[in-house]
Amino acid sequence: MQIAVLALQGAFIEHEQMLERLGVSSVEIRQKRDLERPYDGLIIPGGESTVQGKLMRELGLFEPIKKQIEQGLPVFGTCAGLLLLAKKIENDERQHFATMDITAVRNAYGRQLGSFYTEADFQGIGNIPMTFIRAPYIDSVSDNVEVLAAVDGKIVAAKQDNQLVTAFHPELNDNLSVHQYFVNMVSQKA
């Protein structure tokens, strides 16, 4: 198994380190020719969703990746990755992949000073650490989306078919369980 990590901007190295700890090899996606390498899943890291969206379009990555997701490639979006996958962003008219039936709220917890750490239940895993940095949350989901975690009544993790999203950064803690959850999704798809 090999999992690709979008490596244009954001916390991509930390995701690669988590995969390595799980014994899963990774490949970085930086340019269009990287899409020719074989991979079984894709992680879209946190960072700046507008920057990542712009860079993917400029580098010719956007349409091929969107097509892969629509064709069933397992994808895991954290923070900015959640926004890139959301069908609607409540406080932003931009739309990116729009492959997941969720409505997200960008920078929902405020600026950098609004960043926080908590622990909460993640369905199928249990209580896990969650680090939020200028994080979004999911305001609403359609019937085909499974809510996996909520903090203070706000949805912070969800799954729809081949897509997994978290508003928090599991790559910034030592707990491997969310990455293992995604690796299991990829294994089931293979």
Task: Please describe what this structure looks like.
By secondary structure, the protein is an alpha/beta fold. It has one domain (2-189): Rossmann fold. It contains 5 helices and 12 strands. The chain has helices at residues 12-21, 49-58, 62-70, 80-85, 177-189; strands at 2-6, 25-29, 41-44, 75-78, 86-89, 100-105, 116-122, 126-132, 137-141, 146-151, 154-160, 163-166. The strands form 3 sheets. It has a 7-stranded mixed β-sheet with strand order 2-1-3-4-12-11-10. The protein has a 3-stranded mixed β-sheet with strand order 5-6-9. The longest helix has 13 residues, at 177-189. The N and C termini lie close together (9 Å).
In short:
The chain is of the alpha/beta class and 190 residues long. It has helices spanning 12-21, 49-58, 62-70, 80-85, 177-189, and strands spanning 2-6, 25-29, 41-44, 75-78, 86-89, 100-105, 116-122, 126-132, 137-141, 146-151, 154-160, 163-166. It has one domain (2-189): 3-Layer(aba) Sandwich (Rossmann fold).
